[in-house]
Each structure stands twice: as structure tokens, then as C-alpha cells.
Amino acid sequence: MAVHDYPYKKGVNVTAxxxxxxxxxxxxxxxxxxxxxxxxxxxxxxxxxxxxVAAGLQIAIVLVNIIxxxxxxxxxxxxxxxxxxxxxxxxxKSAVWGIIFILDxxxxxxxxxxxxLILTATSLLQLVHGAILVHRKRRGTLRGGKYAPTxxxxxxxxxxxYGAPQAGYYNPGxxxxxxxxxPVASPVPPQxxxxxxxxxxxxxxxxxELDSRPQHA
Length: 217
Fold this sequence. Notes:
Layout: E1 2-3, H1 10-40, H2 48-77, H3 83-107, H4 110-139, E2 146-147, H5 155-162
């Protein structure tokens, strides 16, 4: 299993997570209060649809941000967070809160500007940190991202069983030259001028010898 033990800075991440959680809780409370106000006040009936959509959209964005932060916390604590995923999460949060921050500036909402500025700044802080890690990884100067060895209970047994070469198999440390246990006598070379005696088969059992005298029919 891959282990992404990258040097994530706690000062950057913890600061961003704490501030984002606090601001998201404030925004959730403000959105819930706005929905309650729209449903209870008759004077806002003409804008009830617009306020409801805006509050619902803000609640959805805030919940997504909270979920992304929780995922970051879990993966970094378990050393399973790739730097590419960390950078992608920071990019999404920076883009979303940056757009909302610009809209708040246009609407001249002071409280919303302050809250979204905190969210945008902390997201950009994580974005810069993630970009530095990715750049160091591409240059090969970033340590981390190894694979954890899997536990195999049969590894010791297999090593004990197959670690030493078995009898009858090739062993690189042992010579394979054939050596006979008893020396074999080499045949005597023939002497010059003498012929080797011919092999004479021995007669077995009784034999008949022919008379050397000439036979007459």
C-alpha cells in the first residue's frame, strides 16, 4: 500500500483548517437564519425565492468545504495524502471562495467580505504550500511517497524452506566437474612391430576335433 509521508507543514494546515471550520460554522448559522427570516417575514415574500436559493447554495458550498477539510485531515494523519490531491483540493477551495469574495466586494457586504477573505486567504496558503511540494517532487528533491511492505506470515517459512539450495539442484558455489571414485585404467597402446593378440574364443563344453588326415570320399 502506498505511503505518502510528505512533509506537510502543520502550521499551514492546522491554521487553515481551524479558521475555515470557524468561518464555515458562522456561514451555516447565517444561512439558516436567513432561511428562517424569509419564511417568517411577509415583507420578504418578493425576494423569498432569491434569498432561498442564495442561502441553499451557500450551505452546499460550506458543507463541501467542511467535507474536503475532513478528508485532508484523515489522509494526512494516516500518511495517505498524495501531493497532487492536496494541491487539487486547495485549487478548488481557492477558486470557489475567490469568486464568492469578488461577488461580496461588488455587493459591498462588509461582514461577508471579511469572512470570505479569511476563507480565500487560507485556501491560497494551502495552494502555495501544495504547489511547492509538487514542484519539489517533480525535481526529485521531495522525500516520501514510498510503499509500505505488506505483512506476509508465510515469508519466514518460505525463506527457511527455499532459502538454501536443495540437493540435486545446481549450486553456484559447488564445482560441477565429474570425478570418478575409482580410476579407470587406460588401454595399453600397441607396441611398434608387434601386433596385438587376437581374441580367441574359448570352447565351452565338449568339442570335436577333426583329424588332420585327408578324407577320401
